[in-house]
Design brief:
mainly beta; Jelly Rolls; RmlC_Cupin_sf; 5-stranded antiparallel beta sheet; RmlC-like_jellyroll; 19 strands
Length: 195
C-alpha cells in the first residue's frame, strides 16, 4: 500500500513543477529509459511540459480547476478541466500548461510506445478488473474494499494507492458511497517488454 503524502516530491524533468513518483519500470530506470512510469504532479503556475519522445502519455485531473494544454505547432489544444477524465496524448511534442483557475494536481502515466499500453479507468461503482501485467488503484476520495482470489480483502483509503508491479490479479473493487478511484492496468505489447 502506498500513502501518497509520504512520497517525497521531486522537481520535474524541466524543473518547472513537482512530481511524486508512484512507480517506474524497471525500478532503477531514469527519465530517459523507463518502460512505464506513474506519478502525481502538482502544478502551481503556468509551466512547460517536457517532451518525451517515443512515449505515450495519459493525464488525469485529480484536484483543482485544471489546465489548458497546448503544443507550439497548435496540433494539440486541450482543456483538462473535468476531474477523473483521462486524456491520452503523444509525449513527442513539448507542451505548455496554462492553469484555468489556480493550482491543480494530476495523475500521469507514461508508457514506451509500441512496448506497453496503459488502460486508465475512473471508478465510482463496483468493478471487476481482469488480471494484467501490472496495475495501480488510486483512491482519490472515500474508500474502497479490494478483493482478490486467494487473499483477504484489503481496504484502500483516500490518499492511498495499491500497486501490483508484476502479475496483477483479477480484482473485485467495491467503492464506498461517493468514493472516486482511478484504475491503471498495464499490458505489454511485445514479448521482451516483460521482466
Amino acid at each position: 500500500m502506498i500513502t501518497l503524502e509520504r512520497i517525497e516530491p521531486r522537481p520535474w524533468k524541466n524543473g518547472a513543477g513537482r512530481t511524486r513518483e508512484l512507480a517506474v519500470h524497471p525500478r532503477d530506470a531514469g527519465m530517459d529509459d523507463f518502460e512505464w512510469r506513474m506519478s502525481l504532479a502538482e502544478v502551481a503556475a503556468d509551466a512547460p511540459f517536457s517532451a518525451f519522445p517515443d512515449v505515450d502519455r495519459c493525464i488525469v485531473l485529480l484536484r483543482g480547476a485544471g489546465m489548458h494544454l497546448r503544443s507550439e505547432d497548435g496540433r494539440l489544444d486541450q482543456r483538462l478541466g473535468e476531474p477523473l477524465e483521462p486524456f491520452h496524448f503523444s509525449g513527442d511534442a513539448a507542451l505548455h500548461a496554462t492553469l484555468i483557475d489556480g493550482p491543480s494536481s494530476d495523475f500521469n502515466v507514461m508508457t514506451r510506445r509500441g512496448r506497453w499500453r496503459a488502460d486508465v479507468t475512473p471508478l465510482s461503482d463496483t468493478h471487476d478488473a481482469s488480471a494484467c501485467a501490472a496495475a495501480l488503484l488510486l483512491c482519490r476520495s472515500g474508500e474502497a474494499t479490494i478483493s482478490m482470489p486467494g487473499d483477504a480483502p484489503r481496504n484502500l483509503q483516500s490518499g492511498q494507492a495499491a500497486l501490483w508491479r508484476h502479475d496483477a490479479p483479477a480484482l473485485h473493487i467495491a467503492p464506498s458511497f461517493a468514493a472516486t478511484l482511478l484504475l491503471v492496468q498495464l499490458r505489454p505489447l511485445c514479448q521482451d517488454a516483460m521482466p
